[in-house]
Amino acid sequence: MKAKIIDGRVVASKIISAAKDKISRMASAPVLASVVVGENTSVTSYVKNQKNVCVAAGIEHETISFEPTVTKRELLEEIARLNAEYKITGIMVNLPLPERIPAYEIQAAIAREKDAEGLHPANLGNILYSGAVRSVYPCAAAAVVECVKSAGVILKGKEVVIIGHGDVVGKPLSAMLLSSRLGAATVTVCHIATRNLAAHTRRADVLVSAAGRPGLVTKDMVKEGAVVIDVGINSVELLDDRGQKIIDPKIGSTAVRIVGDVAFDEVADIASAITPVPGGVGPVTSAMLVRNVVSLAAARKLK
Ligand code: NAD
User: Fold this and answer.
1) Is the CB of 198 within 6 Å of ligand 1?
2) Ligand 1 pocket test: which of 40, 231, 262, 277 has the largest number of ligand atoms within 8 Å of its C-beta?
3) pLDDT tens for residues 193-228?
4) What is the set of domains in the chain, with CATH numbers?
5) pLDDT tens-digit series, residues 77-128
6) 3-state SS, one letter per residue, for 95-162
7) Which atom of ligand 1 is nearest to the CA of 280?
């Protein structure tokens, strides 16, 4: 393997300890309210992880759980209550929500100054203004920027190709990397309708995949020496030598493992630096949530 591994846990621990230091100088601990609807293995594991990083940084984490039958109105009422409760510093709503509840409406109802994930439409929109005063960025997009910086890459003028134009990662990331403050890179955004994906990705000095498609990025799509950031989180079923599903006796169903979008082993032979999955962008995303909550707490004090 040629590539340097970008260890997200190391990047995250530096961010969390800087946050802890700031929090230790605050009069009271910030509080993050995390809203969960229904039960979903990946959300349960993300919330557990949020709690751990919050506790490590000195943030109080409150999980507010709803049955999957909750109505949009009940959720909006809870958001209004959390907006009004002074002790709550930040609010986040774990996705996915049931299909009948539009995530946009719920994110938009969170008070802008309590928007822990940086996904309020006004906070997202401010990314487009170079002069905007802002305190939060979408966590996964900000995590990509941190991973790239940790690899020592100067983004100015570099060719960055992003696969994925989702609202939470690809789109905000493209605007962030265009901004003079965070990157001033030359940004190409590819998506499901892009013709000849490889023709774009092969030009990338920095290639970011946020598509949610295991094995999408193969060696032939990557330029020698590129930095490859894998945002994808995909659960794939484990098969035995005969192609049969392996049953995990502990859970009584098919064993799965988490992989990214990038065919890691082959791409690591050609890239100069690469993030693994798990252990790459994921832990840094949680650290960015902590950083956002600290920024919200600090911005509140200035008022
Ligand atoms: P999304 O569904 O909103 O967007 C997916 C994007 O990928 C779309 O633009 C789609 O057009 C594109 N795409 C899908 N298949 C493609 C293909 N074959 N070729 C080219 N483009 C293709 O998803 P999202 O919310 O942006 O999340 C993307 C991935 O990132 C998911 O795996 C998600 O789990 C992961 N994610 C990871 C973190 C983290 O902390 N690591 C955080 C958020 C999301």
Assistant:
1) no
2) 231
3) 999 999 999 999 999 999 999 999 999 999 999 999
4) 27-116+285-302 (3.40.50.10860), 139-281 (3.40.50.720)
5) 999 999 999 999 999 999 999 999 999 999 999 999 999 999 999 999 999 9
6) CCCCCCCCHHHHHHHCCHHHECCCCCHHHHHHCCCCCCCCCCCCHHHHHHHHHHHHCCCCCCCCEEEE
7) 41
